[in-house]
Known about the structure:
The chain has 11 helices and 19 strands. It has 356 residues and is of the alpha/beta class. The chain folds into 2 domains: 169 residues, Alpha-Beta Complex (Quinone Oxidoreductase, Chain A, domain 1), CATH 3.90.180.10; 149 residues, Rossmann fold. Strand 16, helix 8 and strand 17 form a beta-alpha-beta unit. Helix 3 crosses helix 9. Bound molecules: NADPH dihydro-nicotinamide-adenine-dinucleotide phosphate (NDP). NADPH dihydro-nicotinamide-adenine-dinucleotide phosphate binds next to helix 1, helix 3, helix 4 and strand 13. Belongs to the zinc-containing alcohol dehydrogenase family. Glucose 1-dehydrogenase subfamily. It catalyses: D-glucose + NAD(+) = D-glucono-1,5-lactone + NADH + H(+); D-glucose + NADP(+) = D-glucono-1,5-lactone + NADPH + H(+). Catalyzes the NAD(P)(+)-dependent oxidation of D-glucose to D-gluconate via gluconolactone. Can utilize both NAD(+) and NADP(+) as electron acceptor. Is involved in the degradation of glucose through a modified Entner-Doudoroff pathway.
Amino acid sequence: MKAVVVRQGETEPTVIEVDEPTPEPGEALLRTLRVGIDGTDHEVIEGNHGGFPDGDEYQILGHEAVAVVADANGTDLDEGQLVVPTVRRPREDGNEYFERGEPDMAPDGQYVERGIVGAHGYMTELFTSAPRYLVPVPDAFAESGFLVEPISNTEKALEHAHATRSAFEWTPETGLVLGNGPLGLLTLAMLASEPTDFSRTYCLGRRDRPDPTIDIIERLGATYVDSRETPVAAIPDAHEPMDFVYEATGYAKHAFETVHALRSNGVGALLGIPDDWTFEIDGGAFHREIVLQNKALFGSVNSNVRHYEAAIDSLSAFPDWLVDDLITGVHEPAAAPAAFETSDETIKTVVEFDTV
Length: 356
Ligand code: NDP
């Protein structure tokens, strides 16, 4: 069967033939429908993030998938059920974070991530998984269900944002998303719709019009902010201070500038994954502002099953046009490398292995 991989020493995806997997006892066999591509996949291919499975000379890519149960293999899954697989698996049985359903909080080294670090991903015709790592999704999700994984990352970030502000009355009205990539646009859609429902939303990019991402931002009722004209720290004066900032650029200066864009008592979530970068900041102003204005800044990675379940509701609530506009390319497995090509017209591409 076909698999889309990156080989050791290479920085391009390749399509290869691999053996069909056989499920172990307690595992089901899944037939892949669609696998989405995001910024993390590009970082994996370029060797900036993740790592190969032990002893293998290639890694099967892909961590955003929707699949159908092909062989329940004695598990309590129903054949034909649509599922979205989670990403993390424990390095060793009995890991306390996985045992209590919080794999997203496991420290580095205690987990592998399918398609990212130390384990093969889902960009292949068939894969196997234990049922506890599969989240059932509605039949209507055959084409869009791969978006549950990225949305779940934002469900987690929003949950943590509210948790940091739970000691007092916090009713956020203004939300700013940094980054108009797929993660930023999905998050903007979540902030702009029920149940989050921020009154005013903004999204930062660095593109000229006409641009399909700016069209989506404005169709969602948000204000586009061009970072070349209005740096993050200048946003409170140019627009208004923000109750919530969600960073999805991977541009490391934004981690610090986020604090200056926040209103008193606001919270910033950092999701981007930058390379090493040394630069100067006014550390005194950064520290002082956090303390004297009761601001919070936190990092967030990955998500757990609860967040996937919340993501199903969020995705169901999106307008149909949004998913259509976000998916700018659907590619056959044999042509999968084309799905990794980027341009200003490309937002979200998928490799489609099968349909229902
Ligand atoms: P993309 O790289 O597709 O999107 C990043 C966007 O940010 C691009 O549209 C880019 O604009 C924009 N951007 C970058 N720098 C600036 C800047 N200085 N000013 C304005 N806009 C800027 O990635 P994704 O949307 O897939 O993901 C976003 C980040 O989140 C990535 O770093 C990814 O690795 C990370 N990530 C983290 C997760 C987590 O759990 N923490 C989960 C998934 C992703 P342009 O296209 O014009 O260059």
